[in-house]
Amino acid sequence: MNQLTRQALTGLGQLIVALAVLLFLPAMSLDYWEGWVFLIVFPVSVLVITLYFLKRDPGLIESRIRAGPGAEKEKSQRMIQAIASIFFILTFIVPGLDHHFGWSMVPLPLVIAGDILVVLGLGIIFLVFRENRFTSGVIEVGRDQTVISTGPYAVVRHPMYAGAFIMLFGIPPALGSWWAFMFVILLFAAIAWRLIDEEKFLSKHLPGYHEYCGKVRYRLVPFVW
């Protein structure tokens, strides 16, 4: 096992542990089947994507490992990432509290639908990674980077965020919590803020990006926005 593989798998393991703590500690119980199912569905999906690119494009994994507020070079993005991180954490804490206090009653079919949306969203992100090897974990322009306008990028300008929106929308029902939608909506707003700021950066630093924006009109949802 090389250093990059070890680093990527260690990071995934740490994420799983963190999610388990965020879910089960507020729930004050391990008897939370929705949480256990999610902790299988989400990590397995991410593991499959990670192993694929460790074999096919390790450079992409290396660039994705550098992420989070501290890794951002732009001050505005550091602030956005910090705010988004808080909302992301609360998206998992609230379902645990919801389970403990019994605030929500989410039917089984909707829980299953939520897990399907999580997988679907991650599947779209996988397609984006396969199409664009420059999808770094931070806002930057890499060496020899060019504008990608094929595949999902021919439909919307930010297909990775579109996939993330689908995944995030599935998390509350997957975890059996209606109240978690409150923080998912706030997270949506933070991501929208991030992508608008990202477009300003790319228009300034990536040749051809401004013209691409003129060609592909919609940012996230065709015929909507």
Q: Classify the oligomer.
A: single chain
* Derived structural class: mainly alpha
Number of strands: 0
Order of helices and strands: HHHHHHHH
Q: Describe the biggest sheet?
A: none
Uncertain runs are none
CATH class, named Mainly Alpha
Helix content: 55-70%
Number of helical regions: 8
What's the mean pLDDT score? 92
- Total tally of structural domains: 1
- CATH topology tier name: Four Helix Bundle (Hemerythrin (Met), subunit A)
Summed up:
The chain is mainly alpha-helical and 225 residues long. Helix content is 69%, strand content 0%.
Characteristic key phrases:
225 residues; Four Helix Bundle (Hemerythrin (Met), subunit A); 69% helix; mainly alpha
Written description of the protein model:
The chain is 69% helix and 0% strand. With 225 residues, it is an all-alpha fold. The protein has helices spanning 3-27, 33-56, 58-65, 75-101, 108-131, 159-174, 181-205, 209-215. The chain has 8 helices and no strands. The mean pLDDT is 92. It is globular, with a radius of gyration of 18 Å. It has a single domain, classed as Four Helix Bundle (Hemerythrin (Met), subunit A) (Up-down Bundle). Helix 1 (3-27) packs across helix 4 (75-101), helix 2 crosses helix 3 and helix 6 (159-174) packs antiparallel against helix 7. The longest helix has 27 residues, at 75-101.
